[in-house]
Structure prediction request, 387 residues.
Amino acid sequence: MKRGLTGRYEVIRVGGEEVRAFIPDPLPPDPPLELNTFRQRLLERATLALGRLDSITLLLPDPDIFLYSYVRREALLSSQIEGTQSSLSDLLLFELEEAPGVPFEDVVEVSNYVAALQHGLQRLQDGFPLSNRLIREMHAILLSRGRGSEKLPGEFRRSQNWVGGTRPGNAHFVPPPPGAVDDCMAALERFLHDETLPYPSLIRAALAHVQFETIHPFLDGNGRIGRLLIAFILHQEGILQKPLLYLSLYFKQHRSEYYRLLDLVRSEGDWEAWVDFFLEGVVNTAQNAVQTAQRLVALFKEDTQKIQTVGRIANTALRVFNTSCQRPILTLNEARRRTGVSFPSVAKGMEALAKLKIVREITGRKRDRVFAYDRYLEILTEGTEPL
Prediction:
């Protein structure tokens, strides 16, 4: 449905130029969304796919193993959309204090994202509501180090920003002026907590994401926080026990369509086209996550069977292997800490895994060696090549 402009333009002066900044109308859309038969069926498919995704915690021997790696994969993808050139291996090496030397700026951005996500998740688990205060807390962590750390971490902007172009005067899109940001974000927060609205959680997440991206309340990091917002809405509303739905890969693969549909919502009020795209992304992403988890379970089972054939060292090798499942890039010192086994025994266990070609030493050094669980990393890194 084409409702027309979903907000109003305000003419402001920035850098000596007159610019039209867009102030969105509060949610929900008016008139309401058309939930026709096609859209209802798509919503049902997406809801079913999320149910299967939520149930993978029953499939995995330790759900936190999958969550640890999947969160880092999402951090990498979401940061890549913003232009970082890091890899998953870079991030995992960065997190090992004994393995310095990886590119700093890009990896710090990804590491900050992981910390922001984990902070938000812990706050929700402690009963804190999904709110502007929590969004600002997460943003403060996201921009705590590295690029963007000078751009008001944890604070809504007090100056004009823009999307595309070199200045507001030639920008693709100019969000609300800074004086309107607080009111826009307060209205978004009210929408998130309005239990009288007839929309299911998935639709609310779809609408809220566009609204957040339109407001663009921060000087930097809006895309990353806006994508996190989707997973957190679904987690808070009980749709997902763990925040496992991350649409960054889908948005990355359909980047031009994503931006086209955001523009279409603002200029023509076509929320339905966006919602259809979003729900297709949920189906695609949830199914891929379930398949990834199933492939990891099969891989762990296959490699466990290999290890059981190596004789007396098998028990130690299995303990080291289980640690590699938790951390697919690992030093011997970290393996010793995690297993509680002596350093010589850990070294022998890791050598057994290397002979079975389950892990591979990646430094070429004789001291401070680092081992990678290659096949695990291959599964996780599919689609994460830098843009």
Summary: Residues 59 and 355 are 29 Å apart (CA to CA). The first helix runs from residue 37 to 54.
